[in-house]
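>> Question from a student workshop board

For tomorrow's exercise we were told to take the sequence and the ligand below, predict the bound structure, and bring the output to class. My setup keeps failing. Could a helper post the expected result so I can at least see what it should look like? The ligand is NAP.
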Amino acid sequence: MTLRFAVIGTGAIGREHIRRCSHTLVGASVVAVNDIDPAAAARAVDQLQIDATVYEDPHALIRAANVDAVLVTSWGPSHEEFVLACIAAGKPVFCEKPLATTAEACRRIVEAEVAHGKRLVQVGFMRSFDEGFRQLKQVIDAGQIGAPLMVHAIHRNPQPAPNYQTSMGITDTLIHELDGLRWLLEDDYKSVQVVFPRSSSQAAAGTRDPQIILLETRQGIRIDVEVFVNCRYGYDVQCQVVGETGVAALPEPAAVSLRSQARFSTPILTDWKDRFIAAYDVELQFFIDALRRGEVQGPSAWDGYAAAVAADACVKAQASGAIEPVELPERPAFYNPH
Ligand code: NAP
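>> Workshop helper replied:
Here is what the output should look like for this input. Compare the format with yours to find the bug.
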């Protein structure tokens, strides 16, 4: 059975996901697309050589009888509307991060899904599908470094989006660590503080960059994450976990080391699409395979909500300079791991 997918939002990641569903992965094809700009959707159909209908109305696309599931890859503020419409239509939905732009909006999605009674939402947090992060978790889970005590993490981009605001260092960038470290440590956050070192001269007027986010988990693990979106040299994600008896670090992406002209060097990736290309493949194949078994698994609407609650506290901490509490309610039994 080939699942018939619809895609809302044919920008950068929307086109990437259409390409991988149509030409790389097994078990799904894209039959319908929508973008706020219908010409952009038509261009995607043309350029990616898929046999798909362009819908001007995203809600008609969600309701279409020949659509089995929906990928929401439009910009963040539109996610809530489309995910809620998918739940109302009883259609499984893969929603790119963020699940929604506020914790309250994520909470509404959680409530709608719980009321529906069956999981329909997978959130596009891909760290848990990255081979390096999986190996790191295996080492921790096997007890090879003892109980984790501290995490030192880094998320650097060569340059930010043109409309970058300092808060986007949290909502667009750190959000991956907020989800990924919850998964890695199997813990939730208790409090957060944000400190700003001297700002780079490359940072746009009115923005602060870099920033250091200090998190404490409920078990007392201390985490520092450097977010630096004007680092210029490359796209660089690092994570080191310090445990009671050892230290485990995320492996670097595989790359040829070169000895030439009196230098020993390895290239550094510059594009997030390349750094996590395999993880995106595994993530979407996982969505497809679960759907073919009649299930939705992976990062849940609750995970999207938990990350949003922590992100809200981080944005508050940016402004206050104080240690802010992260107030996440108890997880409903609906979302307990099986
Ligand atoms: P993008 O290139 O701006 O693409 C978004 C597309 O959605 C654009 O074509 C945009 O049209 C369209 N759109 C906006 N509002 C819409 C609406 N109401 N209905 C239909 N289409 C709409 O952005 P992107 O980089 O692909 O990011 C899209 C989403 O994926 C964001 O939530 C982002 O955070 C997420 N993302 C996740 C990852 C990851 O690592 N998991 C990586 C990249 C992006 P206009 O351009 O005309 O506004």
